[in-house]
Amino acid sequence: MPAMEKVTKSDAEWRAQLSDLAYKVTRKHGTERAFTHDNFPKEPGVFKCVCCGADVFDQAHKFDSGTGWPSFWQPVDSVKSDIVGERVDRSWFMTRTEVHCAQCDAHLGHVFPDGPAPTGLRYCINGVALDFEPSD
Q1: Rounded to an integer, what distance in angstroms lies between the CA atom of residue 55 and that of residue 65?
Q2: Which three-class secondary structure state does DSSP give residue 24?
Q3: Residue 130 forms beta bridges with which residues?
Q4: Which fold has domain 43-134?
Q5: What whole-number distance in Å separates Cα of residue 125 and Cα of residue 110?
Q6: What share of the chain is helix, strand, coil (3-state, %, to 5)?
Q7: Domain spans of the chain, in order of start
Q8: Cβ–Cβ under 8 Å, residues 100 and 52
Q9: Is 51 a catalytic site residue?
Q10: Residue 28, SS3?
Q11: Of these residues, 49, 101, 104, 124, which one is catalytic?
Q12: What's the pLDDT tens digit per position in 48-93?
């Protein structure tokens, strides 16, 4: 598998490319309000990073967590699972595991150990950080 090509842009380039909310969430580690992206498609497809277009999550791994944010039990697939990176987030007086796009470092959301089988994980993702591409 070829090495991933990192996507880097200036702050001005990210601001020009993204909506105000997408910029705040993905580049400044913000969070959108819960239940603002409840209209995600149900057909087969892949969710892509809104910043660089990398495949990050698959519709087949999506589930309704009841939290108000799109939730997945694993990244796009086991072969590409390194496209979603993790790091410790100690903001807001708590410790969580932040998830980001490994290709462009966009903040996507957080992962928690309270998801369904088979992984037991809940990737709680900001909808504004994703674009959906239906399968052919």
Answers
A1: 21
A2: helix
A3: 49
A4: 2.170.150
A5: 7
A6: 20, 30, 50
A7: 43-134
A8: no
A9: no
A10: helix
A11: 124
A12: 999 999 999 999 999 989 888 999 999 987 555 688 888 877 776 7
